Amino acid sequence: MRLRKLTLCMLSIAFVQTAQIQSVQAQIISQTPRPEIINPEELQDVETLKREIPIGSHARSILVPRTGALLFASFDRNSDYVIDRDEVRAGIAASFKNADRDLNGRLSLVELEGWRVRALGSENATPTNYAFAPNFVRTVTFETFSAVLSGVAENLDKDFQNELDGKISMADLLKYFAPPRARNNKGENCVERIRQTRREVEQQCRTRSGY
């Protein structure tokens, strides 16, 4: 008799505990937020993330100034951080006037070299003297000077799809570059040196543009 009562008592306790567990589980389920179901028709309004690094660029790539970046940044006269075609033409004319020290309408190689150091930041910067004066010519006309810089402007204007819109943004003045990695931890890893050079170039750009 006692054994029967003890069994019934244990069954009652087990039933009560089971009911409590089920009640707690039901509360947890009811309080858990349901996932939002998106209507397929609304997917057209969903903004997709754009890849900042072009396809084919390595994750170790860093941004460095492109050819003529310092010069063309100074062409931004209205401080909207975009260089349009009118600003390019005005900037090229002003650059030639700045380079022509003797005001004879032509640039000697000495004048050209001095202007490149002032405007591009280094005598080793591109475009080089040879781009302006191929075949060992001794003077550079405004037409040649303008043609070279117009070609640089066209290259800067092209986006990743190789399209032109007539406007050069500050982002267009940069390009991705993957520095070589030192092998077997021997030799100089030039990543930090390139970053330091980039910071110096950006500071020169800001100083020249007045911001």
Q: Explain this structure to me?
A:
The protein has 7 helices and 6 strands. Strands 1-6 form a two-stranded antiparallel ribbon. A two-stranded antiparallel sheet has the order 2-5. The protein has 211 residues and is mostly helical. The termini are far apart. The protein has one domain.
Largest sheet: 2 strands, antiparallel
Q: Total number of helical segments? A: 7
List low-pLDDT spans: none
Assembly type of the chains comes to single chain
Class per helix and strand makeup: mainly alpha
Count of distinct strands:
6
Could you give the distance between the termini?
97 Å
Global mean pLDDT: 77
Strands of the largest sheet, in order across it? 1-6
Rg, Cα atoms, Å: 33 Å
Describe this protein with a few key phrases.
211 residues; elongated; mainly alpha; 7 helices
Short description:
With 211 residues, this protein is mainly alpha-helical.
Task: Summarize the topology.
Elements: H1 2-31, E1 62-65, H2 69-73, E2 82-84, H3 85-99, E3 106-108, H4 109-120, H5 129-132, E4 139-141, H6 142-157, E5 167-169, E6 174-177, H7 191-209
Antiparallel strand pairs: 1-6, 2-5, 3-4
Helix pairs in contact: 3-6
